[in-house]
Amino acid sequence: MCSPGCACFFAQGSCWPRSSAGRTRKNQHAPDLRQAMRRMRTNGSMKTLFLLCGIFFSLICFSAPAGAQPATARVATAADALDAAVKSAAGQGRRLLLFFYSIDAARVGDAVALMQQLYLQRRQYNFDIAGIALDGARPDAVRSFNAGHGLTFPVLIDVDGTLARQLASDSTLGFVLLNEQGRRIGFRLASHTPEHMNLKQQWQTYLSSLLNMPYMPADQPVLGLKPAVPSFEGETVNEKKISIATLHREKPLVLVIFSPRCVNCVNELNFLNSLYAGELKNRFEILALSLMGVEPTAAFMRDNGYVFPAIADPEWQLVSLFETFTGPVPAAFFINMQGAVEYVHIGFSDGLKDVYRMWLRRLAGMDNPPLLVKDGYSGEQRCVICHEREHLQWSLTGHASAFASLHRKAQTNNPECIGCHVTGYGQPGGYQLGRGPRDMENVQCESCHGPGYQSCSAYTGQKTAKKNAAQWKALCVACHTEKESLNFVFPRRFMQVRHTAMPDLDGLDRAGRLDLLHRTGRRDSPFDNPARYVGAAACRACHAEQYRHWQSTPHAAIQPDSAAENGKLYRFVTGINAEGGHPEPGRTGVQCEACHGPGERHVQQPEAKGHGFIVGLGAECPSCVVEQICRTCHGVQDDPEFDFDRAIDRVRHPISSP
């Protein structure tokens, strides 16, 4: 347990202190929201959340999203309304973000802008948002504010202001995030972020990690591009002036943001100090940024016998330079002698000790034999230290984000799915159902090469036997079956994940690399079938019933509009720029082949089965195959309201005749 002043946070081995700049004023006559939320943190239960709302709320009414008819009927209590919202989200396997705000709160504009931005992405990342407006005495003002800010997410309005009266002014802006089971996994108040810090960016960093959304703070490396550490000078608790630039020019530097009251911070600093004074003495430097004042920080340093420099930063003036830092500590930045950030980690556990050793040896230019788990899986965070280029190429494959797809479909505890989305499932050191660890999520290096203690020649001292094509194929098709993978043709797909399949990144800046990493923009055709498109008319003779059904759907009626001028034509036609596809006549609209793939080989051999001829979509996994085809056109940028589970019922046609 962390000592007072620290709250447990979602990241493994991290804590969450408050800044003195962000303290909230306490109401002496009523329960403080922070105290109630601490009780929620203790048991994490839905019941406590409802009790809290029952205490604070009386009657509420709904503020309808922009463009919708306003709801005038009152509902029972906030507990009932939120109970219904939580149960609805949980029933659909979705996470729920409860956002509460006053229209008069400082920085509310930034907060609602982020919530609206997230709301438009909720379908693709499997969560819902419900707003709670605290200005119940001014419902018209709330509606005007919401309309003026273009808010389209549903909002509950506190009618008689009971909740607003219970909150200090700094506590009128924040959110609670619940997981698919209705348990709290995230919580923030605006007061956690001092006013000189960017609230929107802080919350976006925090929530993107929890919601498995692609977002990379500017102070983290991306695809080999390593950002410069923020430059600053300061005075240590020993009253010495220091410059971070001077520190990293002399030796590799580990910068640690910490709180003296955080147990995990103490564990990390104790470990780093053991290296600093022992096996890596004079090989690296430590700079500790404390979130507490000079006196408690100086006492902490003295009591623990630390001699490396520490700066007290209770107002968060220096830590605000680091976008990765959102409150949880410890936060460690490994910086090379050129001043570039090589590695960032939030939290600390014993499993990181060898990772830290290896990073420091690398940065110091020392011999760096791999330190791996002796009888289990070690994880990609160790592999990358010696195999940076290979790791970079892996980052651009679907393997690197395999676990996020389970989050998006609420399948992270489904034993039938999870084994193909994690590393070492059920094996020593590997991922265990319901227990993690998080650093074994995704299909990592060892999923293909085997556990490091067996496959790493630098560790075993023996040359690892190479797999032949048949062995690689057997390994791949264990997960990439026709049910779960679209058009998986081993020779072609294998070449896409080999480490030699490395794109040229030299001409790409950070924005370009992020686009590549997050696969933004138009997606390529999902079909790996080298056949011609033949048009819907060619399907009609054998599939008359299905053709008639297709004609009744929006897919058949859709026509290119002004959006086509902005590079969106692929959403309105079939087989764009492919052989036999648009612009050939008769390819307007989203036809059969837009979903089932080019049909030439199927027309020539109608009895032949398999994705190499046609994609039937009857036996394939709805999430792994069908939805991925739909998302080619219905991505979050083009169709933020797209709900696959509802949309598929509107276009699904009767089962095809042979």
- Please outline the major beta sheet: 6 strands, mixed
Q: Report mean pLDDT, rounded to a whole number.
A: 86
Contiguous low-pLDDT stretches (5 residues minimum) are: 1-10, 22-76
CATH topology name of the largest domain: Glutaredoxin
CATH class of the largest domain: Alpha Beta
Strand order of the largest sheet: 3-6-5-4-7-8
What is the assigned CATH homologous superfamily of the largest domain?
Glutaredoxin
Strand content: 5-15%
User: What's the CATH architecture of the largest domain?
Assistant: 3-Layer(aba) Sandwich
The share of residues in helices is 25-40%
CA radius of gyration is 27 Å
Total domain modules: 3
Number of strands: 15
How many helices in DSSP terms?
29
Distance between the termini: 64 Å
Main structural class: alpha/beta
Shape: globular
Could you walk me through the main structural features you see in this protein, from its secondary elements to its overall organization?
The chain is of the alpha/beta class and 658 residues long. The protein has 3 domains: 174 residues, Glutaredoxin (3-Layer(aba) Sandwich), CATH 3.40.30.10; 223 residues, Glutaredoxin, CATH 3.40.30.10; 115 residues, no CATH class. Helices cover 35% and strands 11% of the residues. The strands form 4 sheets. The protein has a 6-stranded mixed beta sheet, sandwiched between helices. Strands 13-12-11-14-15 form a 5-stranded mixed beta sheet, with helices on both faces. Strands 1-2 form a two-stranded antiparallel ribbon. It is globular, with a radius of gyration of 27 Å.
